[in-house]
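Reopening this ticket.

The earlier resolution said the output was attached, but the attachment link was broken on my side. Pasting everything inline this time so it's all in one place.
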Amino acid sequence: MSSYLSIETIEAILPFIAIGFAAQMVDGALGMAFGVISNSLLLFLGVPPAAASAGVHTVETFTTAVSGISHAVHRNVNWKLFFRLMIPGVIGGILGAYVLSNIDASTAKPFILVYLTGIGLYLLFRAVRYPPREKEPKIVEPLGLIGGFLDAAGGGGWGPVVTSNLLVQGASPRMTVGTVNTAEFFLTATISATFISQLGLAAFTLATIGLLIGGVIAAPFGAILAKRVPAKTLMFSVGVILTLTSLFNLYRAVT
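Inline output:
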């Protein structure tokens, strides 16, 4: 019986390992999508929103640590931009985790998804006309605050909000992806701690463990892809992923 249960457990966790690996490969290379993909899956399987977001952020604490180190090693990080994003992002993350743990924040979700769909389509337009003139982004701290809040309250959103808006402002795709990924570690660690203080250790499910294993394995490879893939391809890929995931989640939110 114990052997049977062991095999059953392995079979149950393998799909989550595969999803964690694929989601982190996309996230490490494009600066977004791990939270969106993983959270959507957990919600589809019936996990409550707060528990799903808590589980995803628990996993991301580990995957973003590995990914951030890898991006730093490959010199994909703009450290000035990093600090401008990280501090307000952490503040926004704490507020968002507290709100989701105590209040239903789903009302605003369709409006956020419509906005992100529009950003995704604009990035596709920008990618077709690439290369634009790269420049230092001016609106950074508000992005960090809003991105951190939406990431915690919506179970994902840091990458779509922050990465896409920095690219719209003309920031370098490679440095944007690396910087956003590295700052995300501090965000997810703070959000996870806030969720644990509000919900206890409910985040540690079999799905969470599977996502963690797959995500950690994939994390170092994303930084390599971000460094080697051409900037135009990166921007186009961000636009495609952002548009498709936003439209899918918008459909689910209104049906």
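Reporter confirms the inline version is readable. The two ends are 42 Å apart (CA to CA). The chain has a mean pLDDT of 77.
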